[in-house]
Amino acid sequence: SGILPNPRKVQLGLATPGTVAPPHPPLPSSSTPSSAGPMRNGAAGFQRVKRGWVWNQFFVLEEYMGSDPQYVGKLHTDLDKGDSAVKYTLSGDGAGSIFTIDQTTGDIHALRSLDREEKPYYTLRAQAVDINTNRPLEPESEFVIKVQDINDNEPKFLEGPYTASVPEMSPVGTYVTQVTATDADDPTYGNSARVVYSILHGQPYFSVDPKTGVIKTALPNMDREVKEQYQVLIQAKDMGGQLGGLAGTTTVNITLSDVNDNPPRFSKIPESSAVGSAVGRIKAHDLDIGKNAEVEYTIVPGDGGAMFDITTNEHNQEGIIILKRPLDYETKKAYTFKVDASNAHLDPRFQSFGAFKDTATVKINVLDVDEPPVFNKPSYVMDVYEDTPAGTIIGAVTAQDLDASSSPVRYSIDWKSDLDSYFDIDPVEGTISTNELLDRESIAQHNISIVATKLSNPVLTSRVAVTVHVLDINEFPPELASPYETFVCENAKVGQVIQTFGAKDQDLPSAGQQFSFKSLKEDGKNKNFTIRDFGNNTAGIVTKRSGFRRRLQEIYFLPVVIEDNGYPPKSSTGTLTIRVCGCESDGSLLTCSAEAIFLPVGLSTGALIAILLCIIILLVIVVLYVGLRRQKKKETLMSSKEDIRDNVIHYDDEGGGEEDTHAFDMGTLRNPKVVKENMFRRDVKPEMKRSPRPPVSQDSADIRDFINQRLKEHDVDNSAPPYDSLATYAYEGDGSVAESLSSIDSLAVDHEEDYDYLNDWGPRFKTLAGIFGEQSETQSDSTTTENTH
Question: Taking CA atoms, which of 169, 384, 595, 738 is between 20 and 30 Å from 159?
């Protein structure tokens, strides 16, 4: 037997023990060179059976979340011929509870999810036995199922939070402390346990080594007197810091320990002291007691008289110096003045001993305090045209440190005021530039905040507001304000302004737009008209000659160039159409029609209107006359004595349908009991009066017999369709109460019938009544003529 290619498969074979080397480090095994085999030829005892194991390590994925049991691997022996005579058994760690084996196929499955951190591997034993006798076919052997790790544990700082200290004024790279994070994932498999350190908060003062977690100083000359405590946030991320890795954090509290970096100095008054605050104390000693020891302090007018004031503390007789005005170290660094101390209650008996007061000189030194940078303007306003290329500088801001140290200043844009990053700023120069194309139609004004930071002390910052107006670029050329209808009189004079016109522009804002008008250069030789620009966004068409005649030319075209004052300037060419018209002597328009040229010269406008009215009246009279003639001359539909049954009469009169109950009494057709006797047919002229038909009962025997006969015919007819069908019977029953509605059985008679009753049926039968009425008159006339002859 040989090694199977499936690394998840263990094969039990008949090879000599020891001839197959395991592909992985040797695992604990209880296999022996010999085993008890089956009895042969009925002889009692054990037969040596050669066997061989292919040791392949089994793997199962931890935290498996599938719905079906997870497939682990397959066991197989060479004695298994596929006839289901071999049964596989499994024992050891988790056998039956965690792992199960198919006794016939040898497939191993994991029944539940496993955690590598809880147990990294399981040692099990497998054996192949005879399914009938349950006797071992081969000795029991041991194998291992290893839980394959996934990244399901984040790094943890078991000793955090950390506390450390470092001397102030330490150079860059001074060791502070080391942090360590542990990851419970398998360090020998993938990058699940490979941890990388980074600093989230604490820059630029400290740095951390990404591999070792050693924290060092990153900024020189950190002064304890400025800031003593620092809090640093360290992150440890597995998967080598790649995207998708799990992370843990810890806090490191770092204290700057003091070093002797400051000489002894007398106290100074900070320049940031508030007005009205106490800046110093002095005391004059008096050997008396009680009210005799009360002292009054006054400042001698001079250098510091305007900046300071002094009061007496009634409890201990100290003089308290109070600040009256703000201090500015950059303006004056020290103040010197004198203070007099005298008794409040004097005894005249001892005044001869001399002045009861003493004088002391007081010097106050002003301490320079780091102040934020100061902008040279309280706010800035900048303009930029839309669609300006990215990177174009639109302005600059300037801030400076007024302290004696004069620290450099760095500029930045507050990201909250420019979320879409439309602008960028040079951190050193303070120049503001566009970061992308601006659109005035989207945002017409941007309000951003510029931050100036003191380089020597980044905590000190100041802000200034910058307003950026996006100016509308000249996108649209100007055009004529409207389609002008211009005319020139035939009697126009030279230099006469015949039309004033203007222009419009779609660019905004419309206020402040300026337009200029001029003629085309190619049209400079125009001898008829010219353009005169009035300078107020309007221009006029001026005639250059007189004597315009419609007979010679009726229409003139005058091109005009219109240009605006936008950036960049745009222009367009419009065309004005000028018609030659006849005018009165005062310039009022008569007509511009070319046909009017051929009218008699003496006709005025009133005469032309009178002629048109006469023509219209004549046309109306002719129309009325023709209409009357047609009404009197109606043609008879029946011009011969033909039977009306052979004629089809068409008339455009639509009845009202079933709901029209006014034209005809439909009850006559529906209710046989309301039939009137002696009612004749109305669709034909009867030749003779018919005797009234007796009413027929609804249960007519002849109709019933006819229908039964036809039903029998259809039942025996082989050509009839084998399905229900509609059979039409062209049979008119006798004794219809409503009488016949067709002319099949109508009798032709020559007796006249009066059709005036059709007029009583309503307007829908008006046409029909007219037709039969004319026919009755015609037949009456014919009868009269025959009788005359």
Answer: 169
Residue type, 647: N
Number of Cβ within 10 Å of residue 432's Cβ equals 24
Average pLDDT, the chain: 77
Question: What CA–CA distance (Å, rounded) separates 114 from 133?
Answer: 35
Assigned domain for 658 exists: no
Give the number of domains in the chain.
Answer: 5
Q: What is the pLDDT of residues 221-236, one digit of tens each?
A: 999 989 999 999 999 9
CB proximity list for 620: less than 8 A, separation 6 or greater: none
Structure token pair of residue 122 = 């399981």
Do 499 and 525 fall into the same domain?
yes
Q: Does residue 208 fall inside a structural domain?
A: yes
Tokens coding 393: 């500088």
| Tens of pLDDT, residues 338-388 | 888 988 888 777 777 767 788 888 888 888 888 899 999 999 999 998 888
Q: What is the pTM of this model?
A: 0.36
Quick one: 253 and 270 in the same domain?
A: no
CATH of the domain at 88: 2.60.40.60
Residue 429 belongs to some domain of the structure: yes
257-306 per-position pLDDT tens digit: 999 988 887 778 888 888 989 988 989 888 888 888 888 888 888 766 77
List the beta bridge partners of residue 299. 339
Q: How far apart are CA 542 and CA 530, in angstroms?
A: 5
> Same domain, yes or no, for 467 and 483?
no
Amino acid at 212: T
Strands (E), 93-195: 99-101, 107-110, 121-130, 141-148, 162-167, 175-178
pLDDT at site 606: 75
- Residue 292 domain boundaries: 265-365
**Neighbouring residues of 788: CB distance < 8 A, sequence distance ≥ 6:** none
Domain boundary (343, 365, 387) is at 365
Backbone angles phi, psi at 784, to 5 degrees: -65, -40
Under 8 Å between Cβ of 399 and 359: no
* Band of residue 718 on the pLDDT scale cut at 50, 70, 90: low
Q: Are residues 163 and 237 in the same domain?
A: yes
